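Feature request, filed as a ticket because there's no other form

It would be nice if the structure record came with a short human-readable summary line next to the tokens. Right now we just get the raw output. Example of a typical job, pasted below so the devs can see what we mean:
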Amino acid sequence: MLAVSASAHSAPKTVLVLGDSLSAEYGLARGNGWVALLEQKLKQEKIDAKVVNASISGETTSGGRARLPALLGQHKPDVVVIELGANDGLRGQPVRAAEANLRAMIEQSQKNSARVLLIGMRMPPNYGRDYTERFFGMYKNLAGQYKSPLVPFMLEGVADKPKLFQADRLHPNAEAHPIILANIWPQFAPMVKAR
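Raw output as currently delivered:
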């Protein structure tokens, strides 16, 4: 019996990252994005986990929702990191629609025995206070409802520093990605360390 539990504990975890350009290394040399840095950190910490980065630049919550079932079937992840919503917000799409898509992705993941880490985003103030507050609050509401860990704002410590962005002023540069990983790691680490 003991041998079985020991091998179950040492089985490598699979982490699926479902995100947009912020996770897909947009405008960066390969290996400089936070997901690649996460893989390096897992190795450094001697945590046996495989990371599948299924992020696509321009992805919306509806796109992620459509792609997720096949990804769950193919990779059977233990942890699903959902980093989506920014493109919905930037296009001014209704918060309700993005929330419904995120809810469906969390439920699908949990039904497939995966734990979910939700990564939140803020919209720029020019979208109006009502919209930006409802958008930001959506992540907290969902995390609370589904008892999922939450990174409230992926770009904490980055968003207010123009020097950490590429020329388009939308996408963080390579210097910003270690900060992004530092925002995510405290919530992420217990999920891969847990049995």
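Something like this underneath would help us a lot:
The CA atoms of residues 107 and 146 lie 8 Å apart.
Strands lie at 13-19, 49-53, 79-83, 115-119, 150-151.
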